[in-house]
Amino acid sequence: MTTTTSLYDQFTELYNKKETLNRNEWLHNLRREAFEAFTVQGFPTTRQEEWRFTNIAPFLKEAYTLEPAAASLHENKNAGSIPGLDAYEIVLKNGLLNVDVDIPGIRITPIRTGIQDPALQQYLGKHIAFRNNSFASLNTALFENGIIIEIAKNAVVDKPVHITHVYNAEEPFFSQPRILMIANRHSRAEIIESVFIKGRQSLFVNTVTECYIAENARLDQYHLQTAPGNAHFVNFTQVVQKGDSLYNNFTYTLPGAALVRNNLHLNLDGSNTESHLYGLYLTAGSQLVDNHTLVNHMKPHCLSNELYKGVLMDQSRAVFNGKIFVQQDAQKTNAFQQNNNMLLSDKAVVDSKPQLEIFADDVKCSHGSTVGSFNNEALFYLKARGIGEVAARNLLVNAFAFDVTNKIQIPAVREYVEKLIAHKMAEAYD
Amino acid sequence: MANKSTDILEEYSDKEYEFGFVTDIEMEVAPKGLSEETIHFISAKKEEPAWLLEWRLKGYHSFLKQPAPTWQNFELPAVDFQDISYYAAPKSKAKYKSLDEVDPELISTFEKLGIPLSEQKLLAGVAVDAVFDSVSVATTYKETLKEQGIIFCSISEAVKEHPELVQKYLGSVVPYSDNLYASLNAAAFSDGSFVYIPKGVRCPMELSTYFRINTENTGQFERTLIIADEGSYVSYLEGCTAPKRDENQLHAAVVELIALENAEIKYSTVQNWYPGDKEGNGGIYNFVTKRGICKGAHSKISWTQVETGSAITWKYPSVILQGDYSSGEFYSVAVTKNKQIADTGTKMFHIGKQTKSRIISKGISAGEGQNSYRGLVQVGSKAEQARNFTQCDSLLIGDRCGAHTFPYIESKNKTATIEHEATTSKIGEDQIFYLNQRGIDTEKAVALIVNGYAKEVLNQLPMEFAVEAQKLLSISLEGSVG
Q1: How many CB atoms lie within 10 A of CB A427?
Q2: What DSSP line would sit under A200-249, residue for residue?
Q3: Whole-angstrom distance between the N-terminal and C-terminal Cα of chain B?
Q4: Which three-class secondary structure state does DSSP give residue B255?
C-alpha cells in the first residue's frame, strides 16, 4: 500500500509541476477536471465492481519512473513487424513519433503539437466518463506523448496502417500514451496496433484511445497484444459512432504480459450504425487478462455484435464483462453478445459477467456465456481416426478459436495470429 | 391497434389492488423501535430460552454494524428502522384445535383472499399453518402429520418443543451476520414455520403457509426453517397477499433449507403483496434472504417463485451444493408493472463433485416496471464435472419499462460445464397477428403468449398452486399489449 501511495504522490507532483506551465486554457481545464476525478478515486481496488476480479495493487508496487527514458531506442527494422504484411508502418517509441510519415488520405501529427489545435476540443476527452475510470482520468491529466490520426473526408486508405509501439523498459517505466483517431465522413481505414518491448524491467502502459467515426465512415481496428511477462497494459478505448457508420474491433491477447486490462466502450450516437467486436484471449502462466466492453445503444436501428472467446492454461486468470445498454430512444436495436471459455488447466480461473440493461421495448437482445473444457466425444472421434492426443487437442483449440480468427480481414494478420496460437499451444504441451 | 393498446394499457395500469382491505382485530403491539429492550421484550413474550435471546442480541449488534447495501439496481428507499413496531399478536390468543374455534373474522379474512382453510382442508389435502401477522392461529392436519413423525409447527412452538433441532440448525445456512436484513431478522424475528421430515419419510401432502401483513407499521420478520433428514421428501408452499396500505411496509424474512443425504426439498412461492398504487406510493418492500444447503450426497433443493406483488422485490433464493451429486434448481417468473421493481435471481455454489444446477428465470416488465436478474454460478476447484444451465429471458411490454441482467459466472474447475443464455424481446407483432387471424382477440392473444412464455416455470408448481399462480398472472397482465 505504501508503494502505491508513493506512486500516487509521484503523479501529484508531476501534475503540479506540469500544469503550472500549461498556457492552453481548455486543455488546462480538461486536465484539471480529469486529475480531480483521479484524486477522488485513487487507483481502483477490488471493492469496486469494475475491478472486482482484477487486483491492480501488486502491479503498482514497482518504483516506476514517469518521464520517458532518455536513452534512444536503436532502429530495429524487424521489431514488431508482421511477416508478409503490406502496410504503412508507423513506429512510436515510448509513445513518441519522431519520423514524419506520409500516407495518402491520412494526416498524422504528434499529440504534443496537434493538441494546440482548438478544433480538437470537440473530440479530446469529450466522451469519457472520468468519474468511473480512474486510469483514463490519470492519462488525460498527464499524457505527454501519442498521436492524432485524422482520415480525410471521402478518403479510402489503400493499405492498412500498422502502428508499432516500442517501449524501452531498461528501467521500470510507467508510460501513458494517448491516441486520437478521427475518421471523417465517408472515409475508410484499417489500423493495426502491435507492441514491441526492449528491456526486462517492469513496464506499465496506461493507454487511452479515442475514436470518432463520422457519418458513413468505416474503421477497422486491430489490437495484437503480444508482450513479454514484464509488461502490464491498461487500455481504455472510447469509440463514438455517428449515423450509418461501421466499426470493427479485433482484440487478440496472447500469453506473455502479466496484466492486460482492456476497456472498450462504444457510444452508438447515430442511427443505422453497425459494430462488430471480436476478441480472443489465450492465456498462460500466471497471466491475468481482463476484458471489459460496453456497448451503449443511444439511437434507434443500430446493430451490435460481440464475440469473445478465451482459452485458459496453467494458473492464468481471465475476466470478461460485457455490458449492453439500450437507451429509451434506441428502439429497433439488435444487440448480440457471446462469451465462450475453455479451461485447459485445473488451476485456471475464469470470471464471466455478461450484462444487459434495457430501457426500450422494441429490441432484440441476447447474450450467452459458456465455460467448459474439451468435448470428450470430439476428442474420442479424432483419436479413433488415428490423430494423436496432442494434435487432436490442438485441432480442437484451433477450431474453437476459428470463429474469431476467421473474422480477420487482412490475410497476413490472420496468418500471423493463427501461427501465434499454434506456436503457443505447441509450447504448452511440450 | 395503437389506440386500442393505449386504452388497454391505461385500463390495466389503473387496475386497483383487488385484495386491499383491513381486518379489525385488537392487536398487542410492542412500542416502536428496535433496541436491546425490544429484543428482551419479544424474547420474554415468547418465553424463549437464553441461547436464543443471546443469538438475537448477536444479530442485533451485527445489524448495528452494517451499512445499507449500495450495489442493487434501484434506489433503496430510506427505511426508518426505529419507526417500525417489532411485535404484534392478535389479543385473543388461545390455542385452537379446530377451525370452529378460530375467530370468525380471521376466517373471513382468509376467505376473502380465496383461501378458505376448511375448503382446502377438504379439497386439496393441504395442511395450512396460517400466520396472521406474527402468531400462528391455526395449524391444520397436524395430527395426520404427527403419525409420520413429521414436525410442522410455528417456529416459536419448535423452540419450546424441539429445542435441540432448532439450536442445531437455526442460522446454520443464513448466519445472523449474513446481511443487514438477515441480521435484522435474526434480532427481531417474530414467528414463522418449522418443518422437520424424519429419515426416509415422504411427506404425504404439500405443506403450506399463508403470510399476511395486517397491522399498520408492523414489519414482518418471518423465519422459516425446513430440515429434510436422510432420504426424505417435502414440498412446501408459501403464498402472500396483504391489505392495501399507504405507508410502506418492510418485510425482511429469512428462509433456511437443509437437505441431508438423498433428501429433496421443493419450495414454491406465490407472492402477491400490495405493490403500491400506480404512482408508486405505498407498497411492500420485500427484502428476503432465502438459502438452502444440499448437505448430503444426492440431495436436491428446488426453488420456484411467482412474483407479482410488492413495490420492491429483492431476493436471491440460493443453493449451496455441498454434497456430491447434489442438485439445485431455480425457477422464477417475476412480473413488474406501474413503478414496481424486482431485483431477483439466484446463487448456485458448486462445492461437491458432480453437482448440477439449473436456472430458469422469466421476467415480464410492463408500464414503468423494472426487472433485474442477478445471478451467480460459482464452481469451486473441487467441483469435478459440475454442470450448470442458466436461461434468463425478459419480456418487455410498453416503452418505459426496463429489463436488466447481471449474471456472474466464476469457474475454478476445468471439468465444469457452464452455460448461460439470456434474451430480451417484446411480444412480436407477427405472433399477435397470427393469433388475431385465427379469431383470438389481442388481449387473449397476449395472455396466451405470456402464459406460454412462463409455462416452463408454472409447470414446476404443485397443482393446487399452479391454479392460483395462473390466475395471478392473468390478473397482472390483463389487457397489456406490447
Answers
A1: 11
A2: SS-EEEEEEEEEEE-TT-EEEEEEEE---TTEEEEEEEEEEE-TT-EEEE
A3: 10
A4: strand
C-beta atoms of A328 and B417 within 8 A: no
Q: What is the pLDDT of residue B134?
A: 42
Which residue type, as a one-letter code, is found at position B388? N
**What percent of chain B is helix, strand and coil (3-state, nearest 5)?**
25, 35, 40
Tell whether ipTM is more than 0.85.
Answer: no
Q: B381 and A346 in contact by Cβ < 8 A?
A: yes
The Cα–Cα gap between B214 and B201 comes to 36
Judge whether B421 lies within some domain: yes
So where are chain A's domains?
A: 2-376
Interface residue of A334, A356, A363, A393 to substitute, partner B, most B CBs within 10 Å: A356
- Report CA-CA distances (Å) from A194 to A47, A155, A392, B15: 32, 24, 30, 61
Q: How many domains does chain B have?
A: 1
- pLDDT digit string (tens) for A158-197? 999 999 998 888 888 899 999 999 999 999 999 999 998 8
Quote the cell numbers at residue B230.
Answer: 436422510
Residue B482 lies in a domain: no
Tracing cell 519512473 back to the chain, one arrives at: A65
Q: How far apart are CA A159 and CA A250, in angstroms?
A: 17
Cβ of B404 within 8 Å of Cβ of A365? The answer is: no
Q: Which residues of chain B are at the A interface, by a Cβ-Cβ cutoff of 8 Å?
A: 71, 379, 381, 394, 396-426, 482
Question: Contact B405/A367, CB-based, under 8 Å?
Answer: yes
Average pLDDT value for chain B: 77
Long-range pairs for B439-443 at CB < 8 Å and ≥24 separation? B442/B1, B442/B4, B442/B5, B442/B8, B442/B481, B443/B8, B443/B478, B443/B479, B443/B481
**Among candidate residues A300, A334, A358, the one with its CA nearest the CA of residue B365:** A358
Give the span between the Cα atoms of B187 and B58, in whole angstroms. Answer: 7
The verdict on A366 touching B (C-beta cutoff 8 Å) is yes
Residue numbers in A near B410 (CB within 8 A): 349-352
Which structural domain range is residue B340 located in?
2-477
DSSP B120: H
pLDDT in tens, B284-325: 888 889 999 999 999 999 999 888 878 888 889 999 999 999
